[in-house]
Amino acid sequence: MSAPLRTWQKRVLQANVVAQTGIVVTGAIVRLTSSGLGCPTWPECVAGSVTPTSSQTQSWHKYVEFGNRMLTTVLVVVALASIVAVRQHNKDRVKAGQAKRHVLMRLALANFGGIFAQAILGGITVLTGLNPLTVAAHFLVSIALITVAVALLWRAKESTDTRTIAIKPVVYRGIQTLTALALTVITLGTLVTGSGPHAGDSAKITRLPFDPQLISWIHADVVLLFMGLLVGLLVALYATDAPVLVKRSAKVSLAVALSQGLIGYVQYFTALPWVLVAFHVAGACLLWIAVIRFLLSAKAQPQ
Fold first, then answer.
1. What is the model's pTM?
2. Which alpha helices (H) appear in the chain, and where do they start and end?
3. pLDDT tens digits for range 232-268
4. Are 201 and 37 in contact (CB under 8 A)?
5. Is the dihedral of CA 252, 258, 263, 268 positive or negative?
């Protein structure tokens, strides 16, 4: 007798992925609309008040920044619901005579704890006047939390913790390399942003000491390397008759990467309009999700 993931449990874990991704996009909108210091202090919005006040000089920017801060509450609620979902799933497994999946609870707790670490880092970002290095760190921690959320959803759908490589070892190592390249691309993207015109506030803010054009070219070069390896892996998967799930995950990653690359080039040649930059940030999250799913799909459970 098995105890599969219930529908409501699956929906909660899906909502967790959406919420972790959504707050990255809204955070980008805060910066791109020059609302990064709409609430100039932390944890209060302004000295003496947690919420925006009519006396603030930040105009509508204060509401944009405060709205993004309030989304952390949504994240906490969804993260707690994820813990409840995993706990109930483990209870269902015990009733069915199966062992608890402790890895799921560890992932759920890491997801919950990471939100508070991210909130503290967000406060440091504000208190340091949107220093581009802390902004980049803030984004990369979000990428880590998205990774945990995706892994939690994926692993919860599996029946046991036992997993084996489902493809040729050399191809699996290629997927691991691809994942590292994807993280490199995303990290370089934060350096491009930290060197570019979208500082996050209307005031003059320190930017990274990189030539925007040069760092953009380096970023693009690594993207091309990523694309070449991804295409090569897709060919290798078909040549070695890999499982359908792995090939499908590779094709999804390629489709997202091509779309993301198109947005990247268009925004570069159109002087970085903030709307396109926001789409590019969302695309970076979707690409990372696709790559993590690709990596996870390369391991199967025993039949």
1. 0.93
2. 7-32, 61-95, 102-127, 132-156, 169-195, 212-239, 244-269, 274-297
3. 999 999 999 999 999 999 999 999 999 999 999 899 8
4. yes
5. positive
